[in-house]
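Quick bug: WD40 repeat-like-containing domain protein output formatted oddly.
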Amino acid sequence: MFVLPPPPRYPIGGPYGATGITGIVPMIETNNTISNPTGPEWQFLVGEGTYVLKEDLHLATPPPHPSEAPIVNPNPLATNPQPASVGTKMTLVRIQSRPPPFFYRGPSATTLSLGGASSQDQSGDARYSTEGGMSSEDGRGTSTSDAPNSATLGFTPAFGEGNSLLVPSQTKDVNKRKKPKNNVTKSNSSFISRVIVNESLSRRMTDRPGDGIFAFANINRAFQWLDLSSPNKQDYFTKILFTKAHCLSHDVNMVTKGASHIDVIMGFSTGEIIWWEPISQRYTRMNKNGVINNTPVTHIKWIPGSENLFLAAHMDGSLVVYDKEKDDSQFTPEDDETSVHGSESGHGQNGVKPGTKMHIAKSVHSQNQKTNPVAAWKLSNQRINSFAFSPDNRHLAVVSEDGTLRLIDYLREELLGLFFSYYGGLTCVCWTPDGKYVLTGGQDDLISIWSAADSALVARCQGHQSWVSSLAFDLWKCDERNYRFGSVGDDGRLCLWDFNVGMLHRPKTSARQRGSVSGPAGISPRSEAASPLGTLLRSNSLYEADEYGDGVSHPVEPRSRIPILPPVLTTVIDTHPACWLDFTEEAIITSCKDGESTTFHEAWNQMPNASRRLTGANRTRQNMDQTWDNGGHNSPSGGGVG
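Here's what came back:
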């Protein structure tokens, strides 16, 4: 029996669903709403305590623009191209810094600006990527926590250091930030449909606490600026509605942020990019009409330590570096003959051997730097889903739809390692706070943990029942040996995981997992290289059997040789696919594709920080012992939500 598709989400019959005798367009509710559900079904138990749902913020999903033809009978099997969409992704920002977690206090790497002076102190609020989340997608949802630079790596040069053409022009007032060109509220651009600014914006900015959290959120063709420290957090500061383009990714510059200036970049389904300064309500449109790259921007992030440069991943498999203050021009690759390591480009489309090489279309050291792009690299012929910068600001982890993880020294524009998923694409990526491990989530419903120093897969995490969409670390529950991270997926589940390096000494004869392993990728070995863990990983490596013979590509490891990690918590938090999460000192915040953002607060957050850290470390060791005492297949703890 044929089943009709569900009715359209919005009324049809005319622009915005105009119906009735008068022909007046009815007002569709587009305001955010907030609720506070209570009851045992809205909480879950982890080893160290209980999380309780504090609030459920629903961001209004904008209807199609009136200029779009109404869909009379939506067919879910239709092959008509639709705008790319990622659901709701957020960035959390504190203007005034809080003391960093104890784990990160001490020496840290310093990134110098191209002008030779130290970049603005990021000890309070700069962060590593989650999706980068610190994701990704990336995504990079982003964290409100501190930049956890590895103390073992010392000084990090700036991206493009040595190229005098990239030194930013000095202004008379060094404390005055340059603003974008155009006023967004008075714009007559066809790209922007409408801008709504809160009438009480100035008063609310003055009255809010200095250490309160701002949130920037994209949902389809809308972008919102919210104040999560306000009791009326559903009342946005600014809401921008774009005409047809969907915002797929955004990021906030942690170097230039301040009480009077915030730099935000947004990437769109049309390939265009907007640099927006929300306090002055000014913006600049970049890559207009796809003059540099006309494919959607899947992920975008500021380059660590830079005031002007940011990196955008495009759906054609390219990574492009832009300067927010440069104009755009028609881009023609400068070098069509060579790619990384000098290998020839005649292996596949656009000079990229399928799944192996990284083609440098324009180097950051090029002498042609009058216009964008600053640099351009071709990695794959399939879309790049997410990327994340390492905590030491030296390396870049990139995951693609072709199922590959690439580790890149982006300062030297060199591919260090290429790793493969068991099957399907990889969707999200992040680094551990100390930069020793890279985590990836994929379409195989698994999370993979890779050792950066040993270039090897060390474990797989099994707990999701659909694609993993976002990863993030809880910085307040990590220490020198124990890691706590979370993940969400298209199954609407939130999973919490504890990972302890020492557990890999245990026998894993009963572990059955899928994954890949690899050999050295050129990253400087750390202390683990001489440890039993490093010996174990190298002994399991298939590096000698590298099918490409270049020391960079690494084949897939048999499932039986990789241990499985179960979650310490798995619970359904939403009926819609979840697409983002992040941790604060007091809470876990998630979002889904339907526009819902949920905040779970720690019921024990009045405990002193030292006690909580001790609890977390003891909890991690206890969970790891239980995991391996049960042969690596213990049942996760915690109750269900929803």
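Actually, after a second look the formatting is fine. The first helix runs from residue 201 to 207. Closing.
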